[in-house]
Amino acid sequence: MYTNIRNIEAIAYPEHMQYLQEVHTLEDMQEYCESKKILVLEGEGWYCICGKDEVVDLAAISKLSIQEMLHIGTELKKWFGTKKVTLDARKSTSYRLIKFFSRGGKVSILSEEEWVWGDDVMVEMTIKFN
Q1: Using an 8 Å Cβ cutoff, are 47 and 8 in contact?
Q2: How is 82-104 classified by DSSP, letter by letter?
Q3: What angle do CA 33, 45, 36 make, to 5 degrees?
Q4: C-alpha–C-alpha distance, residues 50 and 34, integer Å
Q5: pLDDT over 90 for what percent of the chain?
């Protein structure tokens, strides 16, 4: 699992955004998430990592299928319930997934604020699963 996640991260993110390259154990992942309670979802070419109250990382090396997006949404809803969740979404990638869920009524966007990281526009968000 950890090797797959590191490989996806190395392709999906520029070097300055890669923080999982030193994650090799559950304890490393808990430290990365700053949470003892974590959820790791992964598929062929994608992963999603969550802490107790935060989507910590979501990356894909190719476009997610509708089935994959719905699977991720269903699992995140189970994990978070209806509590507020924070995340930083890359505007060019994961932000579009959150907007997809929002348009479908599965997520309410409570706040969003853009910021820049290197050459990427990011969006700090607070959301709630409906």
Answers
A1: yes
A2: TSEEEEEEETTTHHHHHHHHHHT
A3: 15
A4: 10
A5: 87
Which residues have CB under 8 Å from 83's CB, separation 6+?
53, 128
Give the span between the Cα atoms of 80 and 84, in whole angstroms: 8
Q: Give the tokens for residue 60.
A: 């894909």
Q: Dump pLDDT digits (tens) for 42-87.
A: 999 999 999 999 999 999 999 899 899 889 999 999 999 999 999 9
At 7, is the secondary structure helix, strand, or coil? helix
Total number of residues shown for the chain: 130
Look at the block and give the residue holding tokens 């090799």: 24
